[in-house]
Amino acid sequence: MKFLDVLQKFLRQEEVAKETRDNMRISAEALELEAKAKAKEIIVEAKDTALKIREKAQTEARKIKEDATDLERKLEVKKAQIDAKEQELIEKVRDLKNAKVSFDTEKERIEQMSSQKKKELERIAGMTREEAKNELLKEFECELINEKGRRIKELEEEIRRDSDNLAKEVIVNAMKYGATDYVVEYSTSKVRLEDDEMKGRIIGKEGRNIRTFEELTGVDLDLDSSPGEIIISCFDSVRREVARVALERLIADGRIQPARIEEVVNKAHEDIEKIMFKEGDTLCHKVGAYGVPKELVQELGKFKYRFSYGQNMIEHTLEVTRIGIALARELGVDIEVVRMGCLYHDIGKVVVDSNGSHVDLGLDILGKYGVSDKVIACVREHHEDNQSTIESAIVALADHISGSRPGSRGEDYESYIKRLKDMEEIATSFDGVDKAFAVSAGREVRVFVNPERVDDYATQLLAREIAKKIELEQSYPGTVKVIVIRETRVTETAK
Question: Is the CATH number of domain 415-485 1.20.210.10?
Fold first, then answer.
């Protein structure tokens, strides 16, 4: 039984193997047929592609041949045209040669005739051509010398007479345009008090209010000299105006204490800046200057509180510009250059935080805002003896007319301002000094130091050194008191 089972199993396996071989043979034949079909498709596609490439190449070759034929035809036409032009030029050259021969022949004939005529004239006159020419020139020269001398003398007398009269008329007319009155500038301002008890509130406990006010504004308050008034003393008119406005607001408000003082002083600073910008804009409108950069308008507005030799800078600039425009109009030169040159000529005088002459400082400001070279030349040369242009000369003349007329200037004021500024610069040159103010007409210098950098012992030495340097470098009437102030302020916030 087992043998039969094994045999049957063997026969089944043999049948499965045979069936598998048959299936594999069939699959191989199918793959072979499929491969042959794919090969035929590839051959057909290759033939199609080759046919298309051949047709495309034939088409391109045909087009190239046609283009070459067309180009050859055009070249033949051009060649024919060039040959025609060449033949035409040859004919023109031949005609020009014939014309030149005829011209030379005619020229030779005319020269022979002219020579014969000259010889005939010389024979008749008994003089050669050069001798006759020299004789005529001598006669004309004598007549021209006499006539020229007489005419030159007449013109010189006429020009001298007319120029003198015109110069007088132009200057007089120009001065009429700028005639204004000046008020001599002082170094004090007054604030009226309705009640003298307000002075005590202004001084504050242990003088802390008045000390804070003077430190923030850089002025000196005199509460004792005049009953019912407070005198504000400071050489810097801007500082003095800020102090006056701030003090009037504090008196009206009634709340006078250090924090409030600082707030009111800062607000007064902002308001004065606005006022100066408005004054600068008004000045530009009065002289007809438009399109001026805002930064320059702000600088010009500072003229309202600036004085030079006793002249208010706005009034002086207005007068100079009117005179300059009148002169430029009479002389027929560039009015706009003169207008802007007069307007800017003293702009350097409002610069207080830099060293140098007001001319150099003004040129630095104008150079930052693209002012034209002609206007800058007017500013640069308005104090020089020789000017490069007529416009510069007019600006210098207008400034001289405005400054030199009787009563226009107070010479001592400018030197007084310089002396006080020099005192402040000496004090601030020492290490640890925050601010310094010259007050009481230069008889006192108040120095505020940084309490973290200067202690109480060092303040005594600092006061002595500043006083010694002022004594060695400055000239001044009387004595100068140096006060060094060291104040420690502690602030806490309640939450």
Answer: no
